[in-house]
Amino acid sequence: MTAVRISVFAISGGFAAIGGLFLASKIASANQSAGAGDLLMNAIAAAVIGGTSLFGGRGRTWNALLGVLVIVSIQYGLQLESIAEPVKYMITAAVLLTTVVIDSVTRKTQKTAGRA
Q1: By residue range, what is the domain housing residue 48?
Q2: How many domains does the chain have?
């Protein structure tokens, strides 16, 4: 069990390093504010919209990828409409909140039906 835990952390750290290299190459610099802004909110929103539960960690990788496509589509659509940044945050947060509420209600109904 310990070997599995260590290998998972090692693989996670390796992928984080690769992701950092990709981000540094994209912005052509490496600084402390590179991941600032809405990067964390978009990552969480993509996972939750893809079906990963905030209450139990259930979900699949491909569903998270679909969540990324939904978030990116929303952001690009709002960018094409020249919507202000604060409104983009509010719309993304509303989509995330709606998804969490739907997940919560679904989990409650599954518990009452004995399928949780």
Answers
A1: 37-112
A2: 2
